[in-house]
Amino acid sequence: xxxxxxxxxxxxxxxxxxxxxxxxxxxxxxxxxxxxxxxxxxxxxxxxxxxxxxxxxxxxxxxxxxxxxxxxxxxxxxxxxxxxxxxxxxxxxxxxxxxxxxxxxxxxxxxxxxxxxxxxxxxxxxxxxxx
Amino acid sequence: xxxxxxxxxxxxxxxxxxxxxxxxxxxxxxxxxxxxxxxxxxxxxxxxxxxxxxxxxxxxxxxxxxxxxxxxxxxxxxxxxxxxxxxxxxxxxxxxxxxxxxxxxxxxxxxxxxxxxxxxxxxxxxxxxxx
Lengths: 131, 131
Fold this sequence. Notes:
By secondary structure, chain A is mainly α. The first copy, chain A, has helices at residues 24-41, 45-48, 52-130, and strands spanning 5-11, 14-20. A two-stranded antiparallel ribbon of chain A has the order 1-2. Chain A is rod-shaped, with a radius of gyration of 36 Å. In chain A, 11% of the residues are buried. The interface between A and B is large, with 58 and 58 residues.
């Protein structure tokens, strides 16, 4: 685990010192995301005409909405992954079965080849005997 | 798309009327998540001793952190999915190749079988001829 550090971030025109284990790069990314939200919202009259408390709740709701949308995406990806894992499992079985059949066929082919050589030999012997 | 509706949610001890296309169930879930965050934080002295503005930013940062963690999870799941898709692609090719080899071996076996029957017949004819 990395060491606990203090990082200064600039959010909504104010400087905050965040203390934690997250990297400065990560915290700046999160701060920048919040600043973008604030900047987007400040263009909407329906937001700016609200009291500061309500504006804060609206921002919170919007960020929480991003979080829940991301959670839905996680659930959907996990389902896709589960489906792919099932497909992989089935395909592996199908492949093993095909490989076993192939091995069996090849073995039979080799046996037939050996018999056919012996047969050819017998035939030659027969011919010699008839002369 | 569902119709735009007004939904009353209770956040931080206040009632808010949210207007939008999200279901009431979804908005209540988001509101409940924010209330839980507020309730968790209100137990921390490091939070309660701050001004309302700072408390709001701290909450925003925390929810945004959940969002970024979820985004990381999405990136990791998408990578896993990509790997599985590549594995599936490779396995499908391997299976097709094994099935083609099997088909070829089976065809050879059948040909050998036919030849061997003809051979048997020739041998019988030979034997008849020697008598």
